[in-house]
Amino acid sequence: MTAFDNSYARELAGFYTPWAGAVTPAPKTLKFNAVLASELGLDPVEWTADVLTGATAPVGATPIAQVYAGHQFGGFSPQLGDGRALLLGEVIDSHGNRRDIALKGSGRTPYSRGGDGKAVVGPVLREYLIGEAMHALGVPTTRALGAALTGERVLREAGPLPGAVLARVASSHLRVGTFQYFAAQQDHAKLRQLTHYAIARHYPDAATADVPALALLEAVRDAQAALVAKWMGLGFVHGVMNTDNMTISGETIDYGPCAFIDTFDERAVFSSIDTGGRYAYANQPPIAQWNLARLAEALLPLIDEDTDAAIAKAVPVINDFAPRYEAAWTAEFRAKLGLTTAQDGDADLINALLAALQGKADFTQSFRQLAATLRGKDALPDSSALQAWMPAWRARIGEDKNAVATSMDAKNPLYIPRNHLVEEALDAATAGDTGPFEELLEVLAQPFLAQAGKDRFALPAPSDFGRYTTFCGT
Ligand code: AMP
Ligand code: MG
After folding, report:
1. What is the pTM of this model?
2. In the 8-state DSSP scheme, what is residue 172?
3. Are strands 143-156 and 159-170 parallel, antiparallel or unpaired?
4. Is the CB of 112 under 6 A from ligand 1?
5. Ligand 1 pocket residue status of 274, Cβ below 6 Å
């Protein structure tokens, strides 16, 4: 039996609606993450397809739909909430960390607005795959516990598609938008309660700060600066950085129209609905800062009773995002380039590299190729813009070229979820064959190690794959 300990349901009455998942015609498990289940102390026997789809709640669960608000593409929605998700409860994992277990696609809730409360197999397995890949790449992220088919056909733009549910694990589902909801209601008592809860759960040191709400803001800022720097180092574009999709914990959440860049392009946008490029690759750091400013606004009443004084305290915290992000970003790319010390010109060196890659070279492969040149391999094309950049870098790295190459290969993945491979795997799964999904998942579990017979997984999309567009029809 799963040892649930549901602090959110217990301590935060008024922050959710108790709810149950929909009963579905023919639940069938597609994938169960046994390794993660064991880390969470779950008994796999209990996690049947009925449980994974939400039709049956496991013993000890208190299924609830959480309420939150959020800025979506800059416009404020005062009430969003779990429109098709349920938080089953929390468990303490084998490292002593509290983790949420939630479902996505488990049916309508009081927060569904116009939506059907459902999810379909492609996007469910996409979130499974990319979350697990991000975890293997060392990025803080929600994870996939399992995925199950519902046996239902769900109508989407492309036609009727197989319905599915994702079971997701997160260190919590607290979002910037959770704070915004109670701030918009001007419910300062609940805002204070939420702040206490978030601090106790994620940043206990903030509890003893002079102004705990300000210390929470600082902690979230630093976690997000570190997270976005990791995204940038991997060429990852989240695609929907709405404030309801930004966690307090600093984990990546809600893999919808996200994608990884092939040929480097700092303006890269993949989501069909992001026509203005609000969430383009290079915009992610300023958007994270913008979202943190929304969190700061929500927290103002707890920072100081006097609004002007509260603003005076919050503004420097938000302004400090930029230097903190820059430091995290520089550290990230230093490691990618095998630099073990910090020097003044490092940011210029990195920016010169990115300028050389822009529109010309595969982002992921380039770093592996640079490492290969240190082993005497002629890995870069002669015409490569990197050739001109290389001498400055070679002069900057340590003497022991093999050691540098080894450290680079431990930092720069050989395998990322290539868009064309993800699409191929999801198309097959939608048609009933999960073989390609399983193979891709397995390759991505060891992203830094060359795997025999898996060469094609390291390659960019063939040119006939064309421009990649992701759809929000999740
Ligand atoms: P997302 O963009 O997926 O983060 O979702 C934004 C909001 O829309 C959240 O409140 C979701 O719960 C809700 N939502 C998304 N898809 C659906 C759906 N099919 N049915 C009901 N609510 C949905
Ligand atoms: Mg969301």
Report:
1. 0.98
2. -
3. antiparallel
4. yes
5. no
